[in-house]
Amino acid sequence: MDGMDRPGMADFLRRRREALQPADVGLPKGPRRRTSGLRREEIATLSGMSTDYYTRLEQKRGPQPSEQMLAAIARGLRLTVDERDHLFRLAGHGTPARMARADHVSPALLRVLDRLEDTPAMVLSDLGETLAQNRLAAALLGDHSGYTGLTRSTVYRWFTDPGERAIYPDSYHEKFAREIVSGLRATASRAGRDTRVAELVQRLSKESSEFAELWERHEVGLKPARRKVIVHPELGGIELDCQFLYTDDLAQALLVFTATPGSEDYEKLALLGVIGQLAGR
Length: 281
What we know:
Blueprint: H1 6-19, H2 40-47, H3 51-58, H4 67-76, H5 81-90, H6 107-114, E1 121-125, E2 130-133, H7 135-141, H8 154-160, H9 173-191, H10 195-207, H11 209-216, E3 227-232, E4 236-246, E5 252-258, H12 264-279
Antiparallel strand pairs: 1-2, 1-5, 3-4, 4-5
Helix pairs in contact: 2-3, 2-4, 4-5, 7-12, 8-9, 10-11
């Protein structure tokens, strides 16, 4: 027995789906929508899974979902942490630890992200992991959804993958390295004995002498630059303003990139939207 409460989970999923409005996830209502809630295929797309798989769960069929699949469904349905934990219990799993580095994206930040269609935006954890990004952010910085393990962290990739630095001009590399290491130091201070933070620090200390030297400086919480130049492979340098919106516990942040209206950089962002559409075909 897998311990699933299939009827309970099916009812919970259906009710949460029907309670979501299209505007809650950045979708147009459309003239042919007969109900106010979302369709099963829309939740499946938001969760990154097939419609058939999600439909079987709502119909009390299919195998026990993995913890990864449940976390994806929780994000797709914009569940609160309490609702996510309830879903895990219905599926016969223990509830995830409520740590700052949990993969559950803040519903409040997701609601804002869903409404940002004309400018790059993404949700980051305090380990530099991309938890969600919109289409324009993927076009600007690359699709981060394929990263797993430690490579999900920008901090880890910056010191172990030379290609990660290509998105910034050489003149900015030293400053950015100091910023992200000092940010990790602040995260470690808040997290205490969190094993994921400790693992990241230990691995980077062994694999990167540059990181080890910066870590020993004990700089904490240097403010990230509010204006950056991003080097795009097709559009070249784009100078952008960077705005951060943090959750109360500082565990996650919404990062939004904007350009001055009427500027050359503003025009490049418009072209970025076209490039993103072509790449998605």
